[in-house]
Write a structure and sequence with these properties.
heterodimer; A: Rossmann fold; 7-stranded mixed beta sheet; B: 7-stranded antiparallel beta sheet; 13 helices; about 35% helix
Chain lengths: ~290, ~375
């Protein structure tokens, strides 16, 4: 079992005819995700992937025709904010935005709008979600994770794959892996995913993968200390990162005294979280 | 991307914020001429993108055009925190009654812009935040609605600004908001905003940081980038779409993905080495990108070994290995190379690299240990060509 995405997910792909969109639509279909439609304005009526996925001109029409409840966005950064507003207006409940490089102001507007509509956004600049054995809504390679009872939540992409893979090698599977993204403004924060894992009967423990920048990990630590009953293992990347420099991710920057890895590790340890020294140590810290 | 004071103030001025009369000068004689035109006492201000200019002697008051010339000569010869002073701003000196702080930045936690103000202007906001946080007034602005008039009034009242200044303060708050929105800033700051003895509000100092992801909308602003604050290798890396940051260690790192790149740096440190750089080579790790990245890493003479850590994922491991090999053939490094490839066809990839006399590793720990060892000269295993 899982959170956010599962067998009942009815997915549409915004930007389905683009290079990235088409490639990952194929990958998601192969994994068994229920993709009901794609959207590319101006290409409505076409079919992609040998007639497997119908293309619509707008999200609204696609939702009316297919009853989609989830959308994934592969639209380039300049057009992605519009795609976010469109998905929210069409009544999509869960919007996953893979796109990297969206301006912060656009994201602040889109996030506030999506919240007002009562929808949930994952990302942007994220690898999306994987509920092993059930559904893949994103770009995480399916075969690096196996089904299990560990919830994984992360701000990173390949670092998450690294952890899922190390878990798989140790025979440990996950309920759902949620990549919340590396941007400073993101739809869903650690705490909200921790709440979902805490409430999910099929998640027994949680792995949290954080990095420098912002104070999400500190807030997560507070939540873990006060509200969470399930054990949490964490890893924080960027202990050797210099201050004031953006480490690849738009959100990975130590600003003033905020965002240091050491502070995040301390806060998590104080909350009873076991913090791994390196990613490959995580499977050893999980309770077998 | 940070803007200089004179650039930031010119932008604020376009949006109706009053700034001191003045201009920027690249030579002492220009500075003298500007001082003559202004016909008053002037402030000579070094234009460098670091804090603490005043303390470093980079901001001086001149009572005459001759003194302006002399001080500009001195300041233009300075380096402040390793940055050369290439320009000075020559501003009319103000008679200051009071200094205020006002700024807009994006609050990550709230996902909204926040306007901050304090009756204690002129000093570093982090210092005020540390010493007396209650003196900083914060008002969040709905990004879909923009700054409302009542919010500006509330801020003016909260910092105990006399009522006679509320209207002028509102104009400045709105001007700052427009500058922030229309330039896609992540910070727009006036510190200090001063009340002069003739009862005017003037932005004496200004600072803007722009969102790099939004520069495509602002080609004019993008041109204002000051390359002095960046390492030349970082500028070179940007041309290839690589995210590279130079550090002080001896082990070069080439990794796909920002989080994994940081984790790789960290594990090098954990096993007794020091990373020479952060480098995210991006998805795919094509031969062309890997070669560009390798050339950039090797321009650093401190680098004694290079660690490749590529989590192939959807990209096949053998393709990544071929990319690395063709890059090595082109760049011909003379130091040991350690490679770890994970993902589809990773074993085939490792075999290819082994055949080419590279040191290979299967786990991250193994890779880090081998790289640290190789950098210390402890490995006689395949020391490259």
């Amino acid at each position: 079992m899982s959170i956010l995405v599962n067998k009942n997910t009815r997915l549409i792909v915004q930007g389905v005819t683009g290079h990235e969109g088409l490639f990952h639509t194929q990958q998601m279909l192969t994994y068994g995700t229920n993709i009901v439609a794609g959207v590319t304005p101006g290409k409505g009526g076409e079919w992609v992937l040998n007639g497997k996925v119908p293309v619509f001109d707008s999200v609204k029409i696609a939702v009316e025709a297919t009853g989609a409840n989830t959308s994934i966005i592969f639209v380039p950064a300049r057009a992605a904010p519009d795609a976010l507003f469109e998905a929210a207006d069409a009544g999509i409940g869960l919007i996953v935005c893979i796109t990297e490089g969206i301006p912060i102001l656009d994201m602040m507007q889109a996030k506030n709008y999506i919240n007002q509509k009562g929808a949930r956004l994952i990302g942007p600049n994220c690898p999306g979600l994987l509920s092993p054995g059930e559904a893949k809504v994103g770009i995480i390679q399916g075969d690096i994770a196996i089904p299990g009872n560990v919830g994984v939540v992360s701000r990173s992409g390949t670092l998450t794959y690294e952890v899922l893979y190390a878990m798989k090698l140790a025979g440990i599977g996950s309920s759902t892996c949620v990549g919340i993204g590396g941007d400073p403004i993101k739809g869903t924060e650690f705490i909200e995913v921790l709440e979902l894992f805490e409430a999910d009967p099929h998640t027994d423990q949680v792995v949290l993968i954080g990095e420098i920048g912002g104070s999400d990990e500190e807030k997560a630590a507070e939540y873990i200390a006060n509200e969470m009953t399930k054990p949490v293992v964490a890893f924080i990347a960027g202990q050797t990162a210099p201050p004031g420099k953006r480490m690849g991710h738009a959100g990975a920057i130590i600003e003033g005294s905020e965002g240091l890895a050491a502070d995040k590790i301390k806060a998590l340890q104080r909350a009873g979280v076991r913090v791994a020294k390196h990613p490959e140590e995580i499977p050893h810290l999980l309770i077998g | 991307m940070k803007l200089h004071e004179y650039q930031s103030k010119q932008i604020f001025s376009k949006f109706g914020v009053t700034i001191p009369k003045g201009r920027v000068a690249a030579t002492a004689s220009e500075a003298k001429q500007i001082a003559e035109e202004l016909g008053s006492r002037v402030v000579i201000k070094s234009q460098v993108l670091v804090g603490g200019r005043g303390k470093a002697g980079g901001i001086r008051l001149a009572k005459s055009p001759k003194e302006a010339e002399d001080l500009a000569t001195q300041i233009l010869a300075m380096e402040i925190k390793n940055l050369p002073v290439r320009k000075v701003l020559v501003d009319e000196a103000a008679n200051i009654d009071k200094e205020i702080y006002i700024a807009i930045t994006n609050d990550r936690a709230e996902s909204k812009p926040v306007m901050m103000a304090s009756s204690e202007g002129g000093i570093d906001i982090e210092e005020i935040a540390h010493r007396s946080p209650e003196k900083i007034i914060k008002v969040h602005i709905d990004p879909l609605l923009g700054l409302r008039n009542y919010q500006a009034r509330d801020i003016a009242a909260s910092i105990d600004l006399p009522r006679e200044y509320w209207r002028a303060f509102g104009g400045i708050a709105h001007g700052l908001w427009e500058a922030y929105i229309q330039c896609d800033a992540t910070l727009a700051e006036i510190n200090p905003l001063v009340i002069t003895s003739d009862k005017r509000l003037i932005a004496l100092d200004g600072k803007m940081v722009l969102d790099d992801n939004a520069l495509f909308r602002h080609p004019d602003l993008a041109e204002m980038r000051d390359l002095d604050v960046e390492d030349p290798s970082e500028i070179e890396a940007r041309k290839y779409g690589l995210s590279y940051i130079k550090l002080d260690g001896e082990i070069g790192c080439m990794v796909n993905g920002a989080g994994l790149a940081m984790a790789t740096m960290d594990i090098i440190k954990l096993y007794g080495g020091q990373p020479a750089n952060f480098l995210d080579v991006g998805g795919g790790a094509s031969a062309e990108k890997v070669a560009a990245a390798l050339r950039i890493i090797l321009t650093d003479p401190n680098v004694k070994a290079v660690l490749f850590n590529i989590f192939g994922g959807i990209t096949r491991g053998d393709e990544v290995a071929r990319g690395i090999l063709s890059a090595l053939a082109e760049v011909k490094p003379r130091i040991p190379m350690v490679a770890r490839i994970v993902g589809t066809n990773a074993e085939e990839g490792r075999r290819l690299l082994n055949d080419a006399h590279m040191i290979t590793a299967s786990t991250l720990v193994d890779a880090a240990q081998k790289a640290v060892n190789a950098a210390k000269g402890g490995s006689d295993e395949h020391p490259g060509q």
